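Problem 12. The chain below contains 128 residues. Write out its predicted structure in token notation.
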Amino acid sequence: MISGNYLPVGRRRGGRFPPKGASIYWLFVRGLCAPEKAHAIVEEELALRYLRAVIRRVISIETEKRMSYWKVETDRGLCEFLVTSLSENVRRTSPEHLVIPDAFENRFEIVNIRQLDQCSRKILDRVL
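Solution.
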């Protein structure tokens, strides 16, 4: 929970944005807006910057050299995306949980592999 008011700082000295992968920094400022409004702003910015669509079903995964083309059903609808270097980019945060960044750094996640249907699990087992 946020205590106080926060203002997002998007640029560092010299007018440059932080490098890729850097954390988002927040400057604590008193009296600019109510904590509820600040919390809503933080939630909105995080949703825009850190998209995480939850994969509900894997329709197909086609691999070609170091690229894999995924067609999945997510909580946001049907989606097709490209993953480069599958073995390096897919992160297993627990035995059942996967985070899959696509070529454009959108993040897809499988919360629990065991909750996927049998066909989806077979497709995943084939490529992972």
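Discussion. The radius of gyration is 18 Å. Students who got a different answer should revisit the alignment rule from Section 12.3.
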